[in-house]
Amino acid sequence: VHEVEGIERIRLGSLEPGIITEEFVQSIAALPKMCPHFHLSLQSGCDTTLERMNRRYRSAEYAEKCGLLRKYLGNPALTTDVIVGFPMETEEDFQDSYDFVESIHFYETHIFKYSRRHGTKAAAMSGQLTEAQKAVRSDKMLALNEQHAKEYEKSMLGSELKVLLEEEVEINGEQWYIGHSMEYIKTAVKKQDNYSVNDIITVKAEEFLEEHTLTGEVLGVE
Fold first, then answer.
1. Which of 1, 60, 94, 100 has its CA 20 to 30 A from that of 197?
2. Would the pLDDT of 130 be above 50?
3. Burial of 92 (0-12, 13-18, 19+ CB in 10 A)
4. Which CATH superfamily groups domain 10-155?
5. What pTM, to 2 d.p., does this model score?
């Protein structure tokens, strides 16, 4: 795929931890079109809960895989999914999961409250949590996600970003292009006549235009 002319970006998502080997990461790190943005399935940072979910990995292995991606790709954007309130999840189990997510420091964590589905093994388990319990845990994870997202985006200030211009918008009376960097950071660039939608340009991240949107100065343009 990397050698196909016209394909400029390759982004990998929903990866199982077992796929992430040192050989695999070394290989993709050598591909310029590979986006340093990876979505690795987690579901829970608590080993007891992972076992109940019948997951094949444990938290230590998952952390090792995140370390490999950071070893070869510098500061990649790592994102994940987390389920709160799985049957029999105790306060201690939830805290283990929360602490693990905090330690990995994801760019984005997508939070889901466990939803009971008829016919599944989990639906027949004892220890079903109330909606109120799940909501409290979800809110805590969401707050952590907001913190991590802001911290990651701040870490990119001053960096060069390759931005795909996706749409032209008006903000505060000015025309801007809005797009995403290879790390999938939403980025705004002031409109210039020599650029148009679908161009990929290099900018230096300068500041925040609004929450979760960086502004970038175009590099190499008079």
1. 1
2. yes
3. exposed
4. tm_1862 like domain (3.80.30.20)
5. 0.92
